[in-house]
Amino acid sequence: MYRLLAGFVTSHRPDRAVFDGTTFPLVIAAAADGQAEFLVAEHGGRVAGYVLAVRMPTLFAGGTVLELLELTVDVPLRGRGTGSALVRAVQTRARKAHDVEVTVPTRRAAVFYRGLGFHETAAYLKWPTG
After folding, report:
1. What is the pTM of this model?
2. CATH number of 2-114
3. What is the SS3 string spanning 6-33?
């Protein structure tokens, strides 16, 4: 998992100790209690990709929104449908959970997501706390 994360991240520098001791256990716990969806794809007995989406209660949408935050697939396996399958699995889980919508902030992969039925609705801004 950490290997895939390290190749995916562009705006932050992952720290292995923090990943192992804090963030990965938090993601697993959030997924176990329904606050997140965390799915992995395997190829040849090895993790080949993962998707992480976080479920947030909203007032504006009248229910929960599932925000897809991370999707990555091993570089040699890209273009074979793994990422699309992971997104479709998240969409299925969103329907079952009665989420109002699935959103995804992206710069680099807008064409990919449009091909899966997503459309642009807003700009995504951030304010770093550090």
Report:
1. 0.90
2. 3.40.630.30
3. HHHCCCCCCCHHHHHHHHHHHHHHHHHC
Query: For residues 60 and 109, what is the distance between their CA atoms, to the nearest angstrom?
Result: 26
CA-nearest of 55, 57, 64, 58 to 36 is: 55
What's the pLDDT score for residue 33?
97
